[in-house]
Amino acid sequence: MKKASGGCRCCEKQVRFSWMRQHYKTCKKYQDEYGVSSIMPKLQISQDATGNSSRNDAISDTGEMANNQIRQGETSGHPTFKCPLCQEANFTRQRLLDHCNNRHLYQIVPVPAPETTEIDIDGGIDQDIFDINEALGLDLFEGDIKLPGERNSIIGDNYRWPHVVPYVLEDSLEMNAKGVILKAFEQYRLKTCIDFKPWEGEKNYISVFKGSGCWSSVGNMQMGLQQLSIGASCDRIGTIQHEFLHALGFWHEQSRSDRDDYVSIIWDRIQSGKGHNFNKYDDKKSDFLNVPYDYNSVMHYSKTAFRNGTEPTIITNIPEFIDVIGQRMGFSEYDLQKLNRLYNCTSSLSFMDTCSFELENVCGMIQSSDDNSDWQRLSQVPAGPNTDHTNMGECKDSGYFMHFDTSAGGEGSTAVLESRILYPKRGFQCLQFYLYNSGNESDQLNVWVREYTSANPNGTLRFIKEIKGSPETYWQLHHVSLNVTSKFRVVFQGVKGSGLSNGGLSIDDINLSETQCPHHVWHIRNFTQLLNTSPAGKGGAVYSPPFYSSEGYAFQVSLYVNGTIDSPFNLGIYLSLISGANDDQLKWPCPWQQGTMILLDQHPDIRQQMSNQRSITTDPLKLSGSSSNYIWDRPDKVGSEATFPNGTKYMRGPGVGTSAFLTHERLRSRNFIKEDGVYILLTMEDISHLLSTQPSILPPLVTTTSASTTKPGPRPTATTKPPSGTKTTTTASTTSTTGSTTQPGEPEVPAFCSDNPCENDGVCVMVNRAPTCRCPAGDNWWYMGEKCERKGSTQENTVIAVSSTITVFVVMLIVTITTAVCLKKKYKQRKENKESVTLEETKTSF
C-alpha cells in the first residue's frame, strides 16, 4: 500500500502528498535555497518508490506540463505526444500524464520563455513637454515656465549666466535622465561657447531635480539655487535642451513680437483658461537678437499645443511648416545663432574643424612632399563616385571631394593630405568622414596624427588606424578616435594595393570635434523601398547585427520602419540584450548600462546636424510587467529564440524603446536619408558612477594653525540638502579619517555631521567634536543663529545702525542737559557758601 505522506527534502517536514505542492510554495528553506517561490507542476500527485517527493537542482518549473505537449502526429485518428522533459515520444495523452507523474514529478525545469515583447516607454504617444505637464495638472506660465512673481525680461546682463554654468544633479533624478543631461551638455559645448560644471559653492547655480513635469525659470534669477525640473518622461535630449535654453534666458519662439507675420493663433481652439500661454511680448520684454523667425526652433510650440479638440491651435502662414513646428530633436541653426549672439560666442568649445571641400583652398589642407602622388579635388570619377556626399549632385557647379587615384602607379604608391594645425583642449577627439572606395580591396586609407611638442618642433607621426575593404558603390561613414594633447595635424595617407583598380579612394564631409565617437554604426541601405513596402508592426521590423558594449554585453537594435499597428507612420526603435560570449562572466541583471540610439542627420557640418536620439538605461531591478522576471536579466532566461541571417540561433531579451521615435514627416524634413540610406549610431556605456551623490554643497571653513583667519576648504563630498518639494534618495556620505594624520601647519578640514539639524540650507560640520552650523549667505543677506534659523540683511543692518545712532544721540543729549543742570546747581550752591571754585577742583569733581 502506498504511503499517504512524505518528507520535504528541504525542511524534512512530513507532508501529505496532496498538500506537497502547496507546502513547497511556502517552505522558507526551499525558497532560501532557490531564491524564488516554487510553483509546482499542476499534475496528479504521486510518490516515488521511497515515498518521498523528488526534484533536481534546476531553476524553475514548467507550470502546466499538459499545455506544453508537442504533437507528433496522428495514427488512426489518435494524436501522439512527446514528453517536454525527456523528449520520449509516441505517448497517448493519458500515458504522457502517467509518464510525467511517475518519472518527472516535482522535477524543476526552465519555463519556456514567452515571445519577446517590446516595452514602449512612451506608451505609443509622442508626448511633448506641454502634454506631459498638462497631464500632471501643472498650471505653469506658457506651459513650462516657472515665474517667481512678475514676468521677467531676458534683456539685461543681470539675467545672463556666466559662460560656465554651475549645476547640481539631484539624487531624485532618474538614472537615464542624468545620462541624457550630460549628453545635452555635450551638445552645448559642441555648438556654443556655453559650458557646464558641477557646483563648487558659486553664488548662483542650477539645481536639476525630478519634479512634477518639465519646467524651468527664464534667465538667471539671481536667487542662489535655481530649480529646473526633469520629471518622468522628460528625459529626451531635445526636451532638456529646451528647458536649459529657458534657464539661459529664452522664451518660446511663437511669443516673439513679430510672430503674427509667420503664424496664426486659432483662439477658439485653445483650452479654456489657457489663452495666456499664447501671448506675445514687445521688444521691451524680449529680444529676438535680429534672427529670423524660426519654424524649426526647439523652442516653438507644436501645432497641437493646448488644443481643446483635434484641430491645430497654431497654423503656419507657410503651409509646408505646419508639421515642422514643435520639433524636439535638438537645436536649430537659428537657436544657435540667438544663443551665441546673446552670450557673445565667437567659437564653439569642443568643435575643431569641418570640411566639405567646396572651396578651392580645401580648408587649409596641404599636400605632403614626402609622397609620390597627390590627392585631387574632383566632382566625379568615372569609376565612382558620381557625386560628392555633401550635395549628392543636387547643386549645379558645386559638390567636390578629394580623390586618390589608384588606377595608375605601382604598388605602394602613396598620397598624403594633411590638415591645418589644430590645438586641442580636452585630450580626446573624434574624427568623422565619408569614404568611397572604387579601387581595389587591397587599397588602403591610413589615418595618422602629426604631433608637435617642444622636443619635436617639426612634428612626429603617430599611426592611428588602417581602413580597407571591398569596393562599394556608395559613400561609407567612418569614425576614428584620437587622443591628442599637443598641437597636431590629421594626416590622410592613401596607399595603392597590389590588385587591379579602375578608380581609387575618395573622402568627403570631414568633421573633427573634441567629443567621444559612437561605439558602433548601423547602416541601413535601400531605405526608401523599406518605407514604401514594410507593413506596420513586427512584420516591418529590421534588426541590427549583434554588437558588444565596452563592458562585454551583447545587444541588438530593432527598427520598426512603419511603426506599430497602433502607431503607424512612425519610426519605432527598441534596444534588446542578446545572448553573447561573455554572459557567464557578466553581472545579471545587467546594471546601469545606458544605450543611446542616434538617427544621424547627415548634414556636412556637425554643428548644424539635428540628429534624433533616444537613450535607454538598464535598471537591474526593473521587472517585466506583472511577472517576476527582470527585464534586463540574462537573455537565455527572459528572452526568446531568434535567428541571424546566416542561420545562427541566439536568445533575444525584451526590447525597450519607443514606437514614436520619429514621424515620417520629420524623417523627410532633414538629411536623415542620403544616398537612399540611413545611419544609426549606437553607444552602450556604463553610467553607474551617476548613482553617487554629486559633491554639491558649500565649501566648509578650514581652520589653519598658523593664522586666526578662516579660508574656504576643498569641496566636500556629501549629499546636498534638496530644495523644497524634492526628496533625496541617496544617504549622506561620511568621511573616514582612519589611517591619516594631520601634520602641524596643515589645514584641518571639519567632518560632516551624520544628521543635519541646520535650517535654511545650512551645512553641519563637526568642530571640536561638536556639531556647528555653517549658514548660507549672499551679497545682501545671511542666516544666523545656532541652527541658521534667523535671517539678516543689509537693509535690517542699516535700520539698526540708524536707530542706534539716533538712540546714542538722544542719550548724549540727555546726559549733556543733565550735566549742565547739575553744574548750574552746584555753582549756585558754592556761590551761596562763598566758596571759590578752581578749574582743578572742577575736573576732580567729575
3D architecture notes:
By secondary structure, the protein is an alpha+beta fold. The protein is built from twelve helices and 41 strands. The longest helix is centred in the last third of the chain and has 39 residues, at 794-832. 36% of the residues are buried. Helix 5 (175-191) packs across helix 6. It folds into six domains: 5-103, no CATH class; 144-342, Collagenase (Catalytic Domain); 352-513, Jelly Rolls (Sandwich); 520-691, Apoptosis, Tumor Necrosis Factor Receptor Associated Protein 2, Chain A, CATH 2.60.210.10; 697-707 and 748-788, Laminin (Ribbon), CATH 2.10.25.10; 803-845. The strands form twelve sheets. Strands 5, 25, 26, 27, 28 and 33 form a six-stranded mixed sheet that branches. Strands 13, 15, 16, 18, 21 and 23 form a six-stranded antiparallel sheet that branches. It has a five-stranded mixed sheet with strand order 7-6-8-10-9. The model is unreliable at 33-77, 105-114, 698-750 and 835-846 (pLDDT under 50). The N and C termini lie far apart (125 Å). A hairpin with a 5-residue loop joins strand 40 and strand 41.
Strand runs, count: 41
SS strand fraction: 25-35%
Indicate the CATH class of the largest domain: Alpha Beta
Class per helix and strand makeup:
alpha+beta
CATH fold name of the largest domain, please?
Collagenase (Catalytic Domain)
CATH architecture identity of the largest domain? 3-Layer(aba) Sandwich
Provide mean pLDDT, rounded.
Answer: 80
Number of domains: 6
CATH superfamily of the largest domain: Collagenase (Catalytic Domain)
Uncertain segments of ≥5 residues (pLDDT<50)? 33-77, 105-114, 698-750, 835-846
Please identify the oligomeric state.
single chain
